[in-house]
Amino acid sequence: MKxxxxxxxxxxxxxxxSTNNEAVRLLDKKKSFPYWIIAEKQTxxxxxxxxxxxSLVGNFMGTYVLEINxxxxxxxxxxxxxxxxxxxxxxxxxxNRNEKIVQLKWPNDLIINKSKCGGVLIxxxxxxxxxxxxxxxxxxxxxxxxxxxxxxPSSNIFEETNIKIDPDEFLFELDKNIIKKINFWKNGLNYxxxxxxxxxxxxxxxxEISVSLPNGKKEKGIFTSIDNEGGLILKTKDKNKIFYAAxxxxxx
Length: 252
Ligand code: BTN
Prior knowledge:
Blueprint: E1 9-16, H1 19-25, E2 35-42, E3 60-68, H2 77-93, E4 102-105, E5 109-112, E6 115-129, E7 132-141, H3 157-161, H4 167-185, H5 191-200, E8 208-212, E9 218-226, E10 232-235, E11 240-243, E12 247-250
Parallel strand pairs: 1-2
Antiparallel strand pairs: 2-3, 3-7, 4-5, 5-6, 6-7, 8-9, 8-12, 9-10, 10-11
Helix pairs in contact: 2-4, 2-5
Bound molecules: biotin (BTN).
């Protein structure tokens, strides 16, 4: 294994339940930020909405732990900031010919050739004051393997591009890109530019989609944009509707 020199410190585990859980356990021990918690394998990988994240050896599983001194309401920006950093990282490895197949699915999935190849789970693991938060940005990217039973089609970068990315190399690039994007975001001052970059890469933009709501209801319409708060704008028959928590699917 090559020795990649990272900007952030890295704690590496062969096997752990979840790198996000480890971030919580380390709260009293590690006081210097940011740092990465990386695992070759997770036995209880967590996805959004308490879903299980299938954590297969050869894929990337890591949590970036950072301290943010900012009002709570700005924290959801980090979803878009980190998705863009992952996008830039994947792009670095795949050829220009393959570039267009990578997209970002609202709210925080990575797509390759219309299938999910990664996701982000952001947790606010400690808020001592309104303006002081420790954030765990959990990132899973299917580099070489994909889970078999998923509600949304799943794939991996190797299968779609024939390019095998080493998880250590991926971390090396992601570390640079996440720092770069966070700096570009400027604690929210540049959020508009972040959203613009995100929208340019949005999966199903201007397409008819089905929005699945937390209460089980479904809404159909055209996904036209993202509002200033990161909500999905859906043009329905009678009016524009905005959603902040939902899942989207192609309307067939
Ligand atoms: C999702 O798409 O639902 C988010 C998946 C996030 C998975 C990553 S893998 C590393 C980190 N540790 C976890 O337990 N989950 C995140």
